[in-house]
Design a protein that fits this description.
ten-stranded mixed beta sheet, 18 helices, 14 strands, 17% strand
Length: 464
């Protein structure tokens, strides 16, 4: 877990560079959907989509969890402030966790620190986005109610506490309801928008894995997965530390080039990355293991199993995307569900044989025996299509506000890709309008202002 000290070190480092060399914080190359998406296996989207930019501000992107009982945990829902006294055996307090512009694990870390508990003891069903306002149910065990009520956590509000038993397991949700402001290059034609939304509800859309699964704009996770599945463990380590994407900032590119020049001197590479301990947290975790096992890359990788698993799954996600794109382009019928790569059934793996041969990973099952317990071979069926439930769409000056619900595991950005050619992050295109809206109020589902009013230390520049 990233410490407060690490956050402080990185903030100070960025401040120095912004003052002394601001040009180093610019991306080497501007992100472009047409070059990015084929690299993660996505290649069958319709042409001529209008350009749309998302997440200029956190309040442009709202995620509200839908529980298995179809209760929507809203950012603006405020129930009675009085919590009934617990009954015998009720050692859990269920609360709504609302966060603003904060990473999921950062929020859990801050909650755990404030309440004197461990993040592993906080029950939650799903990870939520960082540059957004999100609401979800959490479960806190063996923590006095008065401790929760007195807590003050920047960027986080804990509200609507109810006593109960048990906890919340990963995946224990129906889905998520999204309210998103897409800032468009031109004016959106309402007739086209409503017709296209109706088509997506009726016919569904391909359930591609989105960019987040592949390491964001670094676009590396699935490539590292290939090296792992080949058994090329040193290659995976070297590229995890040194590979630089075309979409990195000049500063990050320079740091990774320095690391490549010093490889395999892990002490010096650690010094290079330590200036930005949050940005390079994965690399620093890996280096810590490499210092313990400098001549054994397999053992070092076994020390960071969560990263290795993520890389392997990213390659599996790439294959899923590539299969869907290929079938769509060829006009072939696509089954409702298909198995992902790490299945114990041989016939499931045959589905991906052309890519396994192309990437020289036909014998990945044998190679992965060197990493016991990191990968588990169990059949997982993945839906090939998602059918969104659209609640509303409002065209406003500068873009369109959409309200829709997706089942658990489905990506909102994948849905939006079927409407717009998406942009986000830096640099912000010149055509992006900067108007601020209370998007829940605009679409008639509540109020962003009311929802964030109780969240401590919200900066004025980011409020609606």
């Amino acid at each position: 877990m990233i410490s407060d000290e690490s956050q402080k070190i990185q903030q100070e480092a960025f401040a120095r560079h912004e003052e002394e060399h601001p040009e180093l914080l610019e991306r080497v190359k501007e992100p472009n959907e047409k070059t990015i998406l084929p690299g993660i296996g996505i290649g069958a989207l319709s042409e001529g989509r209008m350009k749309g930019y998302i997440r200029l501000y956190p309040h442009d992107y709202i995620v509200e969890e839908v529980t298995p009982k179809e209760e929507v945990i809203t950012i603006d829902r405020a129930l009675s402030s009085k919590t009934p006294l617990p009954k015998e055996g009720e050692n859990t307090i269920y609360c709504d966790l609302v966060k603003y512009g904060k990473g999921h694990f950062d929020a859990l870390r801050d909650v755990a620190k404030s309440l004197g508990t461990d993040t592993k003891k906080i029950g939650h069903a799903d990870m939520k986005e960082k540059n957004a306002i999100t609401a979800q149910k959490i479960a806190l065990r063996h923590i006095p109610l008065e401790t929760i009520e007195k807590s003050t956590i920047p960027g986080v509000s804990i509200r609507n506490c109810v006593q109960g038993k048990g906890t919340i397991q990963q995946g224990e949700l129906k889905g998520n309801r999204f309210t998103i402001f897409v800032r468009t290059e031109g004016e959106v034609d309402e007739d086209w928008l409503y017709e296209r939304l109706a088509e997506l509800q009726l016919d569904g859309y391909l359930n591609y894995f989105s960019l987040e699964r592949f390491g964001g704009l670094r676009l590396i996770n699935h490539k590292l997965g290939v090296y792992i599945l080949r058994g090329e463990f040193e290659k995976a380590v070297k590229e995890a530390l040194c590979y630089s994407s075309d979409y990195d900032t000049e500063l990050v590119r320079m740091k990774r080039e320095e690391a490549r020049d010093e490889y395999p001197d892990f002490e010096k590479i650690e010094e290079i990355f330590s200036e930005f301990p949050v940005l390079f947290h994965m690399e620093l975790e890996l280096i810590a293991e490499l210092k313990k096992h400098p001549d054994d890359y397999k053992k070092a990788l076994l020390g960071v199993p969560h990263h290795v698993t993520k890389w392997g799954r990213a390659y599996s996600n790439y294959l899923f995307n590539a299969y869907l794109s290929g079938q769509k382009k060829q006009g072939n019928a696509i089954p409702d569900c298909i198995p992902l790569l790490f299945s114990e059934k041989r016939e499931d793996v045959v589905l991906y044989k052309p890519w396994l041969h192309q990437h020289k990973v036909e014998h990945f099952q044998k190679n992965l025996k060197a990493l016991p317990y990191v990968f588990r071979f169990k059949r997982t069926m993945q839906k090939t299509k998602i059918y969104p439930e659209v609640f509303g769409a409002v065209v406003v000056p500068g873009g369109v506000i959409l309200s829709f619900e997706l089942p658990k595991g489905a990506s909102a950005t994948t849905f939006l890709m079927n409407l717009f050619e998406l942009y986000e992050g830096e640099p912000v295109p010149s055509w992006v309008h900067t108007e601020k809206y209370d998007i829940k109020d605009s679409i008639g589902t509540g109020s962003v202002k009311e929802g964030i009013a109780t969240i401590p230390k919200i900066e004025d520049k980011n409020t609606a």
